Please model this.
Amino acid sequence: MDDLAIAQRGVAEAEAAVEEARRNVTKAKKALDDWTEKNPSYTGEEPAYKTRVAALDEREAALTKSEATLDKRVSYRLGLIGAAMDIDESANMSDFWNSLSSVAPVDNCLTFDPAPTFCAEIPKQFFIRKCYPRMFQLIWEKALYGINSMEERGTSGFAITGNPGIGKSVFLFYVMWRAVLRRQITLISQYLNSPATWYLTDALPNGPSAVGAITVVVAPPARKHYKQFLKYTKTTRLFYLPVWDLEELLAARAMYELSPAIVEERFNLIGGIARFVFEKPNLIHRTIKEALGGLNIDKFRNMVGGYLSEEDEISYLIIHFVISDDYHVDSLQFASKYIVEGLSSRRGSLFESLSHRQLSNEGRFLIRSLDNTAASVDSILG
Model:
């Protein structure tokens, strides 16, 4: 067996280990959820609870280790077939790229050292959300290994959206790190037509162009940001990243030196919008008030199709996408009970707006008095 065949077998074994580790994480998480549901009055100090949390932590650590092993084996296999990586000539850029391959997560956080100075958008440190590895693997499999459906084989374009402030742009830096570990990234524009290049971008004024590179674009939820990109033949369907859950926020709080109580308090106001929980807590109440004040029936309809205007996108901060396991939108939900209570004061105007819409469409309707449920139709009509 030659070196390439051995390397390919090593990749297959590492992929199987990742899948097994991911199943174990799912199993441990379900065991924890089942236990907490059966024991609603539990405390974090109870031995049974701590045992399940420890099991989950252990399995998540095993998953991270398996992913690192897979990246190394993929990198070795690609090295045998001549995969290239191009480095910018600037000293800081070169130091940064050379250091990336040795960066390892600590407590699910990645820290870039040296910190890049060539791009202000690159965070020095960020939290690896649990959806990041799954989304990366989905993109990797579709882009490089193909899938069963012949119609989608060769997919190289991926558009990702979701509620504002949840880490869509940060996901690009996670992809960058994983791609560097696999020796799969180039930075020079002349390589954009090479299928071995990864082109990572957020929404451009006219959308990313059709190129041969594996393109990952993250964009706000308004459809105008990715409409043209989705028309390219090698672009797959639109993916959505979920908002953060409380478990993720609590796991990342150490980066911001926040107590669990403060994180939970902010989560109970704005839900899983990390930008507000961690970076802009002073704007939470004003943002909620502004978003509730501009909410109407038409906006509910437009949110589903991504047709909100840019000035109305604040609504996405209080109404969140519910995302399925394959990163589709299942439904919409309000960010918190606090927001639902705030909306209750506007239920009259929302009902009036809906009524006008229904009446303008003509037809036959049932009517009743909102003040006197016993009133007859004749008395209502006068």
Summary: The chain has a mean pLDDT of 76.
